[in-house]
Amino acid sequence: MIIIIFIVLSYSMLFVPAASSVSTIKVGDQLNITPKLVSPATNFTLGFFTTPDSTHTYLGIWYTDDQQSRKVWVANASTPIMSTSTVLMIDPVTAKLIISTQGTTLVNISDNESGPTHSNLTATLYDTGDFQLKNETDNKILWRSFDYPTNVLLPGMKLGTDLRTGRKWTLTCSLNDEIPNSGAFTLSWEPNQRLMIRRRGQPYWTSGDLNNQTFKFMTLNSPFYKYSYNLSYTDNDEETSFSYHSLNGVRPMWILTERGQIFDGENSLYFSFHEFCYGYDLGNGCVAGTNLSACRSADDKFTLLSGDFAPGMTERTYVDDSSLSFSDCMVRCWNDCGTCLGFTTGANGTGCASWIGAKSVKFSGDPQGNSFPKYVIVSPESHKGNDAKILIWAPVVAVIFLLFFCFGLLWYCKTRKFKREEKRQKDDDRHMLELMDSSDTERGGRKGSDMVVFSFAAIVTATNDFSDENKLGQGGFGPVYKGKLCDEREIAIKRLSRTSGQGLVEFKNELVLIAKLQHTNLVRVLGCCIHGEEMMLIYEYMPNKSLDFFLFDETRKVLLDWPKRWNIIEGIAQGLLYLHKYSRMRVIHRDLKASNVLLDESMNPKISDFGMARIFKQDETEAMTKRVVGTYGYMSPEYAMDGTFSVKSDVFSFGVLILESVSGRRNTCFSFHDKTVNLIGYAWELWQEGNALQLQDPTLADSCVVHQLLRAIHVALLCVQENAMDRPVMSEVISMLSNDTMLLHVPKRPAFFFGTIASKSTLVEGKLECASISNITITQMEAR
Ligand SMILES: *[C@@H]1O[C@H](CO)[C@@H](O)[C@H](O)[C@H]1NC(C)=O
Ligand SMILES: *[C@@H]1O[C@H](CO)[C@@H](O)[C@H](O)[C@H]1NC(C)=O
Ligand SMILES: *[C@@H]1O[C@H](CO)[C@@H](O)[C@H](O)[C@H]1NC(C)=O
Ligand SMILES: *[C@@H]1O[C@H](CO)[C@@H](O)[C@H](O)[C@H]1NC(C)=O
Ligand SMILES: *[C@@H]1O[C@H](CO)[C@@H](O)[C@H](O)[C@H]1NC(C)=O
Ligand SMILES: *[C@@H]1O[C@H](CO)[C@@H](O)[C@H](O)[C@H]1NC(C)=O
Ligand SMILES: *[C@@H]1O[C@H](CO)[C@@H](O)[C@H](O)[C@H]1NC(C)=O
Ligand SMILES: *[C@@H]1O[C@H](CO)[C@@H](O)[C@H](O)[C@H]1NC(C)=O
Ligand SMILES: *[C@@H]1O[C@H](CO)[C@@H](O)[C@H](O)[C@H]1NC(C)=O
Ligand SMILES: *[C@@H]1O[C@H](CO)[C@@H](O)[C@H](O)[C@H]1NC(C)=O
């Protein structure tokens, strides 16, 4: 009997907390540190919570089923509670909602001047997330949490001004993710019907006009978003306010972040386009600064980099002031004219560490990310720490350039002399042989930086007279053969057929280019051979063929595990960066694709086929062509449609390559379920839904490093954005790939230019077709 009573007792005791899933407290009730209030339909929970460093306790509200327990409201965030013996109650004497400990009021949560002492008051948490103190006798709301927003705007919550009382409804950001104390930014609704973010009271950003359910400088209600919002505003004698409702969301919340952006907790995206506003960039809603420091150039930006300044050249100072948050540190550094080079905040996101030094002090990147990352002011033309590469390559390039020039001159003289001679064909060979001899002597042991002119006879022997079994494949401008020189060296020979369309112009182009380009991730040209009308390029031989040979083959793709693919992605990025930036000339490849990425014996990638590459002068950034060359599926929309190309066209192709490497599927011949999107579109949809991991090639299941994979997909989506201006440059791509902590922008809609290739009815045909499409380079296309 006693046992039964005991069981019954303990049973009921166990369920006391569960049974306490009440939504209302009355006068006399006390809610202590463990039990929570839960709204009637269980949408929201209210209770005490403790910060991760377990020093401070707050009273807050959160979505009951939010895995991250993001707080949508915090009571009196600037007065944290240190004691654990605190209770929430309605003070019967003052008729206020209070947090008290052992009979002492710590905080008056509600601020109304006390009415007469009264006992018929309740405080209720509603399913809207609103917590209200009510006088039950006349059903009047005495206080409500919606009137005191913190950093989250919930559906139905107002931003604006109550004109009767003068109360302003504004969001204030928290100090950081963990500490809810007020930070530097506020979000308000302005009389001119715009949202405005202020930084310490100064206008910082505006949303632009509200139009057709979206704001000019916010991405709202994009058809690609899973959830959408119904925006509304009120403008009358009583109030001017803005609010929204979620049409299909589960846990809608708009969060004002501690870095002054508006974050959509539902879609996990930033609504606003800006990352930081500097006062000079006005295109994305940023407000012109009144105090644009004269010492900063109008393109300087803070970038999170891992690495260090040259040792001994900077002084690190630390201001231990817990009221200074990220953005205060940034502004202090920005305004510290000429001497502040970079900053970070202290460990809990407060306090500022700055690096002080001369502007010229070099920053060396640390791709491994071992050193403490910091925000460094980067001017667009500074080299982000890769200057060392230029120093290494410059002499090499110079030597090759010189050598090439000499050869060119020699060759030119010889041909002219030779033209006067009659025995054309025979002398051709002899001439090449002579050149080879002279180059051998001239080389004088400068191994590795030489370019050889091969005799036609040597090439014929090496390839067994261009026999079919030595044929490696068909390049854009002619067949490629494998060959073996008498010294056992293996070479690849690209034979440029007379009918191929690659004339002397392209040949010279490629020769000039390749001779000057030297990088581990670019295929190396060993020499050339000219035989009458026929021209040949001799490359180093790549035993593992090209990337597409492995990537798109069900059995061979297993050989490319994730570390190899990551290495390939990084290698291509380095090769492209070199082409775009460090190769002395600005080279645009224009035909980057999986079949133009060759693999050496250890699967290191090497970019090949420069037949269509274009050299830009350093000051030239964009060009137009009537002759659109490139490959279907890799061509950026602006290039394919208007013939405009820039480094960003290569970036686009690179983004496609990443997606292909991650998924093991071709961009062009892709269909899933019944939808007719290409790989880019599919990746975008998955990413929008938060399911980007599904893009992963199933064969990567064992070797995959999830955060790297997701980062790769994120970077890829940034690279394939519709607007070329939005795409990053290769140096940024490399920092993004190599730096795990670097903040990435939210990609905008990608170009869906090839979205309708595999239509449902022609799926079988489409498959056949795409196998050929994706391999063949389009050399002529009508420009519009
Ligand atoms: C709370 O409000 C009462 C008056 O209603 C005041 O006497 C008291 O000092 C306040 N307590 C705190 C901690 O602000
Ligand atoms: C607590 O918050 C209320 C608003 O809910 C405010 O009126 C009051 O001044 C705050 N008290 C403190 C001590 O911050
Ligand atoms: C509650 O309402 C009753 C009836 O209107 C009123 O007498 C009382 O003063 C109110 N109490 C408070 C705290 O406002
Ligand atoms: C509460 O949650 C349910 C289910 O998620 C939802 O249908 C309902 O609209 C929510 N109520 C409010 C007031 O948000
Ligand atoms: C409290 O208010 C309710 C609703 O008006 C009323 O029915 C009830 O009698 C009141 N209780 C007291 C103690 O005044
Ligand atoms: C208390 O404040 C609310 C607004 O938050 C207001 O509507 C109400 O009239 C006030 N009540 C008293 C008794 O001052
Ligand atoms: C408003 O936006 C919708 C899509 O969000 C679009 O279909 C419609 O044409 C737009 N209307 C105007 C007037 O811009
Ligand atoms: C949006 O809200 C307005 C008023 O709040 C309402 O009239 C309209 O029907 C809503 N639109 C949708 C699509 O729910
Ligand atoms: C502008 O700079 C001056 C001095 O440098 C400073 O006192 C003032 O607060 C700044 N104003 C703004 C809007 O930052
Ligand atoms: C952050 O840390 C510093 C010491 O590093 C401390 O003084 C400060 O109180 C902390 N701030 C908060 C809000 O926890």
UniProtKB/TrEMBL annotation:
The entry's keywords: ATP-binding, Cell membrane, Disulfide bond, Glycoprotein, Kinase, Lectin, Membrane, Nucleotide-binding, Receptor, Serine/threonine-protein kinase, Signal, Transferase, Transmembrane, Transmembrane helix
Domain Apple: 295-376
Swiss-Prot/TrEMBL catalytic activity: L-threonyl-[protein] + ATP = O-phospho-L-threonyl-[protein] + ADP + H(+); L-seryl-[protein] + ATP = O-phospho-L-seryl-[protein] + ADP + H(+)
Subcellular location, record wording: Cell membrane
Xref: CDD domains: STKc_IRAK (cd14066)
Membrane topology listed for this record: Single-pass type I membrane protein
One Pfam family from the record: PK_Tyr_Ser-Thr
EC identifiers of the protein: 2.7.11.1
Domain Bulb-type lectin: 22-146
Family designation: Belongs to the protein kinase superfamily. Ser/Thr protein kinase family.
UniProt name for this protein: Receptor-like serine/threonine-protein kinase
